[in-house]
Design brief:
two-stranded antiparallel sheet, alpha+beta
């Protein structure tokens, strides 16, 4: 069976694990020579390194509760407003990056169904908010909590993107429907290949801007995901611009 027919069929089965399906999508990406798709699938299967930007669906809010002690009372598991966390510790503490592989995410969903909750490591946060939440009270413990829906959202988003990718590839490059397991090479024409890369880019990163320059210094062409100034600066500097010029344009 064609991979472009097999993958959507398996994705529509909500009881099927996503990991094995993504392996087939990775094989398809390799045969089609679409690096951006290969990278996305690789990160979802193996996890996202700290140096790699996370998709929005893998960044989730964190809520905190703390235990505070004064000379005359103990307040246990008191909710701490996110406004105060941001004010005294910074905005990054109010979100958590889910960098684990999709297999780990699915195991977390299964564990939470069994009554296991997920908490973040908030030990350093005690030092940042100490004495700022309740005057005259010391914070003796703090816990960061992540809603179970955060992991379900990651699972659903990956499943949805994988489906959009296969459908987009099929529409942009009908020749790709001939690819099956065991096939060594895909026969996709140049026009189909270009449309397919644009479709994949749109699903994974959204719209992108293209900057062209032609003059005495030659032609420069840079594709940059909308809102990603870092990728624009990097592309321009690789093309020979100075860092200052690239940052000014960005």
């Amino acid at each position: 069976m064609s991979l472009l027919n097999q993958i959507p069929t398996e994705l529509l089965d909500d009881k099927a694990n996503i990991g094995p399906i993504l392996l087939k999508l990775r094989f398809l990406a390799d045969r089609l020579d679409v690096p951006v798709l290969e990278d996305w699938v690789k990160h979802e299967i193996e996890g996202y390194p700290t140096a790699v930007d996370l998709p929005d669906y893998r960044i989730t809010p964190v809520s905190y509760t703390g235990t505070f002690q004064s000379s005359f009372q103990i307040l246990r598991e008191v909710p701490i407003p996110s406004f105060l966390i941001e004010q005294f510790a910074g905005p990054t503490w109010n979100t958590h990056d889910i960098r684990s592989s999709i297999s780990v995410v699915e195991s977390m969903i299964a564990n939470q169904a069994g009554g296991i909750s997920y908490q973040t490591n908030a030990a350093d946060l005690i030092l940042l908010i100490q004495g700022n939440i309740y005057k005259g009270s010391s914070c003796i413990s703090i816990s960061g909590h992540i809603e179970p829906s955060a992991f379900i959202n990651v699972q659903s988003s990956v499943r949805s993107k994988a489906l959009d990718l296969t459908l987009g590839i099929e529409k942009a490059a009908p020749s790709a429907t001939a690819i099956a397991l065991g096939q060594r090479q895909a026969i996709v024409g140049p026009n189909e290949s270009e449309r397919m890369r644009e479709a994949v880019q749109f699903v994974i990163n959204g719209t992108f801007n293209q900057v062209n320059n032609s003059g005495t210094s030659g032609q420069i062409s840079v594709q940059s995901t909308q809102g990603n100034s870092h990728s624009l600066i990097e592309g321009l500097t690789k093309a020979g611009w100075s860092d200052g010029e690239a940052r000014e344009l960005s």
